[in-house]
Amino acid sequence: MARLVICSKSAWTPPIRREHEVAQLAIAAGHDVVFAERPIDIRGIRSLGAVTWAKRLLFPATRRERGVLVVSRSTLVPGHRGVLATFADSFLLRRVLARWPGSVVVLSLPWDWPAVSRAPAARWVFDSADDWSSVMERNRARLRKLYAIAGTEADAVICDSPMLVHLFGGRDATVVANGAPRQLLEPALTPSPGSKVMVYTGTLSTRFDTELVHQVLERLPGWTIRIFGPAQYPGLGDDPAPELKALLARWGDRVDWRGVIPKEQMVDALDGGDVLVIPHRVEGATTGDTMKFYDY
Questions:
Q1: pLDDT in tens, 191-210
Q2: Strand partners, 201
Q3: Contact assessment for residue 55 and residue 62, using Cβ atoms and an 8 Å cutoff
Q4: Are strands 197-201 and 275-276 parallel, antiparallel or unpaired?
Q5: Which of 34, 45, 85, 219 could connect to 81 by a Cys-Cys bridge, CB 3.0–4.6 Å?
Q6: What's the chain's average pLDDT?
Q7: Confidence of residue 231 (pLDDT cuts 50, 70, 90)
Q8: Helices H / strands E in the chain, number of each
Q9: Rounded (10°) CA dihedral 127, 209, 41, 17
Q10: Distance in angstroms between the alpha carbons of the first and the last residue of the chain
Q11: pLDDT at position 205
Q12: DSSP class of 4
């Protein structure tokens, strides 16, 4: 039985992303899985508390959920911010990885890759689902360099789309596309209502185009939009950004934000809408393989 250590770009909860599905598939196959959540940087002190944040900086916390050992840790500043930020975050991540030597380690963020240089592992894998160099234009050159280094050093590179392979300096990469869970193929318990309901599922972040939603609701006075997913705005933890608060305040019950729901409830959530929408801004759009397309 191999041990798989997943260094995620997400928290364990809600378990709705590619790396969560990989973790559950590995557990089902009989492997031991460690899931290192994205670190909480200094901006998270407000929601996490100074004492807890500081403790996790030195001693990451662990808990077991659904057969997976989940690791929660802190960092000083986000690793993508600059060379020093990458160095500091990699140092802290390397200390976490050293607790499970000889594992298969999977990373998905280019600024995490420097952590591999001194941490013992049986196999290093880069699993790419986003071109972060396109999302973060100011850091484009440095992130491209980190992708290229990962392409040189990794034992294996996996991409969720052929459009990401070029990031790794021409080396061979295996394309493993995303998919939809089997339960989404089951019949819905309730039919589509025929009541002019739009549905969006996914993370609410700067990529979510609130201005577009304003304009759509102005032009379609009989319609509402039902939103399922967490808020994840930079520096705000789980809190909505002012632009999202303004959307909710202006439209009242025509914008129905229901937060995170279990995956098994997604069938009824999607089939409860007449139209499934993805109101994303063009800026920062990635060339990855978006999981919500499969769900929809």
A1: 666 789 999 988 888 889 99
A2: 228
A3: no
A4: parallel
A5: 85
A6: 86
A7: confident
A8: 10, 12
A9: -30
A10: 35
A11: 83
A12: E
Distance CA 37, CA 39 (A): 6
pLDDT score recorded for residue 130: 84
Q: Cα separations (Å) of 10 from 149, 156, 213, 216, 241?
A: 23, 21, 26, 30, 19
Q: What secondary structure letter does DSSP report for 81?
A: G
pLDDT confidence of residue 147: 92
Structure tokens at 48: 């996490």
Other CB atoms within 10 Å distance of the CB of residue 37: 19
Pair type for strands 32-36 and 3-7 = parallel
* Beta-strand pair 104-107/123-128: parallel
Report residue 287 CA to chain centroid gap.
15
Asked if residue 230 has a cis previous peptide bond (ω within 30° of 0), the answer is no
Asked whether the predicted pLDDT for residue 185 surpasses 90, the reply is no
Query: 164 — alpha (psi -120 to 50), left (phi > 0) or beta?
Result: alpha
